[in-house]
Amino acid sequence: MQLINTIKEKPYHLFLIFAVFFSILSLFHYGNSTIDIQMHDVYFVVGHDQVFFWIFILLFLYWMIYLLCRKFLWSNKLSWIHTILTIFCFALIFILGTPLLSGYVPNDMLKRYYSFYEVTNTAITSLTIIMVLAQPLFLINILGGFIKNKLIVKS
Q: How far apart are CA 68 and CA 60, in angstroms?
């Protein structure tokens, strides 16, 4: 019960919980399972365990920055929105990427193999864009808090 009250007041602790989850996932080896990222005429091939490790690092850094700047946060609502959007997008990307991770393709999709992955890749790309667009909320929250605290100190 105390954990729930702490998370209600300080939603950025969710970053630590999910960072631990992704750090555990990064310890597993997924065989030859990789993510191929195509940018124009260049392919980047990255292992899933490395992706989970970097997600862990990113979430852990967000948690640390929130801890360092907690006195300067402008709005708890902005913290909630930023935290939920970021974690929700990472979780959905993980869930959508799981069939890709296991090589699972539904039987009725074998004929439309390309179509299955095209829809999944579009969804993952859309979630990534939403997540990137949510990151300025983090900066607005911190900068707004600095400005608010400076105005309070001056008056």
A: 12
> What is the residue extent of each domain of the chain?
2-154
Q: Give alpha helix (H) positions in 10-112.
A: 13-27, 48-68, 76-102
Rounded CA separation 153/22 (Å): 40
How many alpha carbons lie under 13 Å from residue 108 in its C-beta half-sphere?
Answer: 0
Measure the CA–CA gap between 110 and 102, rounded to whole angstroms: 15
- Rounded to whole angstroms, the Cα distance separating 20 from 15 reads 9
pTM over 0.90: no
Of 120, 89, 93, give the one whose Cα is nearest residue 106: 120
Cα(94)–Cα(39) distance, rounded to whole angstroms? 21
pLDDT by residue for the chain (155 residues), tens only, comes to 676 777 777 888 888 888 888 888 777 766 666 666 666 677 777 777 777 788 888 889 989 988 888 888 888 888 889 899 998 888 887 777 665 555 555 555 554 555 556 677 778 788 889 989 988 988 898 888 888 877 666 65
Phi/psi of residue 63, nearest 5 degrees: -60, -45
